Amino acid sequence: MSDLAEQTRNAFEFIDKLFLETSYLIKEVEGQLQLMPEEFVILRPSGYGVTSLTSTGLEAQNVKLWVRKRVAVAFVPQRMTKRVKGQTVTPFSDDLRVLFLTLVAFDQGQKEPTAFFGVAENIQNKYKKYTKFEQLMWEFTYSTFKMIGTAKKIAFEDGTCSMSGEVKKLKLFSLKTNEDVRTKVVEPMVKMYRS
Asked: Which of 16, 113, 146, 161 falls between 20 and 30 A from 155, CA-CA?
């Protein structure tokens, strides 16, 4: 096998492994949040999955989006949402507060994979066709750095929505054990939610 072919195979095997480990991380966060008194559940915009920024377009700027570089999930207390046909429906309300986890594997300016997590609140929907929070989940991948990438506080507004909140970030590879997930992600998320 040529060096180039072997490097290509290794690169795809690494990406597959990274995505698999990312799914395990998300499921661990989900499991730990379900055990909290609030009984947080993962939101399901279009089934049990992540929200990602992708493209299949052939334009040069879209080719860069063929591989998922950012994925996001969100959680709310079970009482704030309902499941309908494999999806969740979380209506907009004045007291809606959402936990989020956005994972950035690679992007311009990122030196290494990063986890952004926190709480979003004061969520205002400006797009009348949107009837549930799940329809705004794309903002956490499309507008990652405008929304949550530059400060500890969220003060975000665009033509679709506005929200505020808190955010923390950490090196993704610092999460090596379930205990790390609990102490470095889940407990800080829940503390932000309860404050």
From this structure: 113
Cβ(89)–Cβ(134) below 8 Å:
yes
- What the block records as the tokens of 43 is 């939101």
Q: How many CB atoms lie within 10 A of CB 90?
A: 24
pTM for the model: 0.94
- Percent helix, strand, coil in the chain (nearest 5)? 35, 30, 35
pLDDT tens string for the chain (195 positions)?
Answer: 689 999 999 999 999 999 999 999 999 999 999 999 999 999 999 999 999 988 999 999 899 888 888 999 999 999 999 999 999 999 999 999 999 999 998 877 778 999 999 999 999 999 999 999 999 999 999 998 888 867 789 999 999 999 999 999 999 999 999 999 999 999 999 999 999
CA torsion 46→52→57→59, rounded to 10°? 150
Nearest to 147 by CA among 163, 134, 133: 163
Tokens of 123: 């969520």
